[in-house]
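Why should sequence recovery work at all? Because a backbone constrains its sequence more than one might expect. Tight turns favour small or flexible residues, buried strands favour hydrophobic ones, and helices have their own preferences. The token representation captures these environments compactly. In the example below, the structure is given first.
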């Protein structure tokens, strides 16, 4: 998978999860993809102060990204 295809797949994953985040006043942005297997995202809005944002990141965001791009190993939130 090319870098462009990988980026496109990750954006599709974020589009899938975005409505759930939006419904709680939050959002998410793709910051970078490193070495084709590490993704950095930024949780925004209400997600920045939410007490369960790490659970959302693991159970929601990471799972959805891996569905579209199985080679991804880690997903981290950068402030």
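From this structural description, the recovered sequence reads:
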């Amino acid at each position: 998978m090319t870098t462009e295809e990988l980026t496109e797949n990750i954006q599709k994953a974020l589009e899938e999860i975005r409505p759930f985040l939006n419904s709680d006043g939050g959002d998410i942005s793709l910051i970078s993809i490193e070495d084709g297997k590490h993704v950095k995202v930024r949780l925004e809005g209400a997600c920045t102060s939410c007490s369960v944002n790490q659970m959302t990141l693991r159970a929601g965001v990471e799972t959805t990204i891996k569905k579209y791009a199985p080679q991804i190993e880690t997903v981290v939130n950068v402030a």
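A few observations help interpret the result. Residues 3-23 form the longest helix (21 residues).
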